[in-house]
Amino acid sequence: MNTKITAPLEWRKSSYSGGNGQCVEFAAPDSSVVAVRDSKDPSGPSLSFSSEAWTSFVAGIGAGAFDTGR
């Protein structure tokens, strides 16, 4: 999705994130979009997705769709 987000973002991490700094942070400025960034580079770029795409991605994670067997 190519949406320019102009509102200030409140970044959050999963409650499952450890303290190793290798986390993904997300922000939801409104109900239609979710922004994602690398927590190691908070001033770096972010990606934005529709809320529907983000919900599908999170559901896939929960279902094990992205497990690599490691």
TrEMBL record:
The protein's matches in InterPro entries, at most eight in alphabetical order, are given as:
DUF397 (IPR007278)
The protein in question is named: DUF397 domain-containing protein
Please report the stretch or stretches of sequence annotated as the DUF397 domain: 9-61
